[in-house]
Amino acid sequence: MSTTGAKAVCAIMSNVISSNTSENYNTNNVGFVWWLIQSSRYHLIEGWALTAINNKTTITKKKKKIKALINAMYCDDNNSPIILSDLTFEIFSEYLATKKVIRCHRNNSTQMLSKSTYDLCQSALMHMFKMSKYDMSEEFAKKLSRFMAGLKRKVSGLLFHFYYYSSFIILV
Prior knowledge:
172 residues, mainly alpha, two-stranded antiparallel ribbon, 7 helices, globular, disordered C terminus
């Protein structure tokens, strides 16, 4: 396929989802890249991307740079800020496990986020793979699918427990 043909195919593939959805995924992926940096997983960040991010002076400017790098990703270019081929299920699942910081008002206990928040994280990662030169391994995809199913059941159980007992407290 010619370079022009490949670019045309890539442009069509990048329009499979709406621009708003793509923007939501990219915003979510900023948090993931920032988490990688904060947890010292520099081996997963391309050197040129890490340099560009570290050249910024404030956290806000660093996150804006991450967003710009993610927005610039194009499926035929080698410009993914994350070395997705080195990303493992264990690292991504650890990231997902850190996303449970909502506090319930009545008893001040920590709850997990909603199922849709975890779905967004998974979809955002899939989008990043699609907009890069990398393919998610079958093993990674299988483990992630099982993890998400278990996570959704856990969240549903916690929410049921919270709402059931909150309603009970209100009624009594």
